TrEMBL record:
CC cofactor: FAD
SUPFAM superfamilies found in the cross-reference section: FAD/NAD(P)-binding domain, Succinate dehydrogenase/fumarate reductase flavoprotein, catalytic domain
Name this polypeptide is given: FAD-dependent oxidoreductase 2 FAD-binding domain-containing protein
Organism: marine metagenome
Entry keyword Oxidoreductase: yes
Keyword Coiled coil: no
MF-aspect GO terms: oxidoreductase activity
Length: 352
């Protein structure tokens, strides 16, 4: 991925705004522009837009929404700011945190009322670090369904999305203004598209092992559970144009992905009383700190594997999530009538 300085960039077509990346971030940006009467072109490297959103539970944190009020949940911008800063140990930029908190509720309301995105308030458990129920998600609790809703909204708004379009170069003037991009198609051919502005919505660098080793060495040996297109393109393009970077060592780990199935298991089970044990049957940390914090501890266990232990009550909760039901159908969940029965079925030593 390159940034090319070129004042003689001859384009085949031009649009006001190019959005690189067709995940949730890119589609929401496109919908925002469409509402403002500004045309955009979304460039997506895959045959079907999905991004890391499709691998997630599709949950959007937001405060002071009508769904919260209907459920009798008391929440506010100040409460969300407090929770974010507590989780981030005070390291988050206060201006950015406030800006995000203030628009979180209106954004969810806008997605629901203006663009028909079906979201519900997730109840039954508090998300790690939150003091109020504020996660909004599709009823299925699947990011793939959130993406489907956003794609329907984009189609209704007549937003142009070009798939199988890998952006290889940003073309900028000497003053740093981006005037276009070069796109590579699956057959190796290239296209040049001009623009007045570009939005980089192509996530982080989790799929780039070299960047992971450089910025978060403690996670270098971790299995990557994200979209393979997250190669750090936006970081590399931005820094080449003079952008500042900060907190490059920040990341979201996840310590509850079924292996080798590659299916996300909701952390709600941990927050409601589940525990994780290693292959020796030992509980090795406090899971309630959160799934990202727990990831480093899981990596330190033999074979980098932990078992999640739940009871029938939590099994019922897990089955409210489509991913959990998929994992169960795939054989990732072992059932036992007793500790001894579970020990036989998992090969983990039972209670002494």
């Amino acid at each position: 991925m390159n940034t090319v300085a070129n004042i003689d960039f001859e384009v085949e077509v031009a649009v006001p705004v190019i959005i690189v990346g067709g995940g949730a971030c890119g589609l929401v940006a496109a919908l925002t522009l469409a509402d403002a009467g500004i045309d955009s072109l979304v460039l997506e490297r895959d045959a079907l837009p999905s991004g890391s959103t499709a691998l997630s539970s599709g949950m959007i944190p937001a405060c002071a929404t009508h769904l919260q009020r209907t459920a009798g949940v008391k929440d506010s911008v100040e409460m969300l700011i407090h929770d974010i800063q507590a989780k981030a140990k005070g390291q988050a930029d206060p201006a950015v945190v406030r800006a995000v908190a203030e628009v979180s509720g209106p954004t969810v309301e806008w997605l629901i009322t203006d663009h028909g995105i079906e979201l519900t308030l997730v109840d039954g458990f508090l998300y790690p670090g939150f003091s109020a129920l504020r996660m909004h998600a599709p009823l299925s609790r699947q990011g793939a369904d959130l993406m489907s809703g956003l794609l329907r909204a984009a189609e209704a708004a007549r937003i142009d999305i070009m798939t199988n379009a890998l952006v290889t170069d940003l073309v900028a003037l000497n003053d740093g203004r981006v005037i276009g991009v070069t796109v590579q198609r699956p057959d190796g051919s290239t296209e040049k598209i001009g623009c007045q502005a570009v939005i980089l919505a192509c996530n982080g660098y989790g799929g780039n092992p070299d960047m992971v080793r450089e910025h978060i060495p403690e996670m270098a040996a971790a299995e990557y559970f994200g979209h393979p297109g997250n190669q750090g393109d936006a970081v590399q393009w931005g820094t080449s144009l003079g952008a500042a970077v900060k907190h490059m060592g920040a990341y979201q780990g996840h310590s509850s992905v079924a292996t080798p199935h590659g299916i996300l298991i909701t952390w709600a089970l941990m927050m409601e009383g589940g525990i994780q044990i290693n292959c020796f049957g030992e509980r090795f940390s406090n899971e309630h700190r959160g799934y990202s914090e727990q990831a480093v501890d899981v990596l330190s266990q033999p074979d980098q594997v932990a078992w999640l232990v739940i009871d029938d009550r939590l099994l019922t909760l897990g089955r409210e999530f489509e991913e959990f039901k998929l994992a169960e159908a795939a054989g990732a969940v072992r059932h036992g009538s007793s500790v001894e029965d579970l020990s036989r079925k998992t090969g983990i030593p039972g209670a002494p």
